[in-house]
Write a sequence for this structure.
């Protein structure tokens, strides 16, 4: 499959409109990787508002205490302690960027904010999961090849 310049430019435009920080696509010999500029503090976030709200909900702090159903209480207590990075989308989670390759990170590895730590395949598109934290990976919470939901914890950091 060969993409025309027009198709590539449309793809770049759509990725920009979606507010994605990076985008990867692989089909046989064709590999496309688009990366947007890093946001400086104070700039508008490229992460859509629902994602930002979902990520703050997973942090069980005093500011999030309120009326809960029994199911929400059980779900909250089942979440791991420490800084947790949640899935930004629904898809298939991969620990490696190549089939059968070495995982990008293991428990105990030190990572930098912005480092690629996983891949989520959604609609045949490979999306990099970049670390939201500087620190040590305490636990990889999702298994290679597992279907993950939006907001599902993927990594726990110390």
């Amino acid at each position: 499959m060969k993409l025309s310049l027009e198709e590539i430019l449309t793809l770049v435009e759509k990725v920009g409109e979606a507010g994605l920080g990076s985008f990867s696509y692989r089909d046989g010999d064709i590999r496309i990787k688009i990366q947007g500029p890093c946001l400086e503090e104070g700039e508008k976030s490229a992460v859509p508002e629902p994602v930002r709200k979902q990520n703050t909900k997973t942090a069980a702090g005093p500011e999030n205490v309120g009326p809960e159903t029994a199911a929400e209480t059980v779900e909250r207590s089942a979440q791991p302690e420490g800084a947790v990075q949640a899935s930004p989308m629904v898809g298939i989670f991969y620990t490696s960027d190549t089939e059968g390759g070495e995982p990008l990170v293991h428990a105990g590895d030190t990572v930098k904010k912005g480092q690629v730590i996983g891949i989520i395949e959604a609609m045949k598109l490979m999306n990099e999961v970049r670390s939201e934290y500087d620190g040590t990976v305490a636990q990889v919470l999702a298994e290679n090849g597992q279907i993950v939901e939006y907001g599902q914890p993927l990594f726990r950091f110390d």
About this structure: Helices lie at 5-18, 49-57, 70-78. The two ends are 44 Å apart (CA to CA). The chain has a mean pLDDT of 75. The beta strands are 22-27, 30-35, 83-86, 91-94, 110-111, 116-122, 125-130, 135-140, 147-148, 153-157.
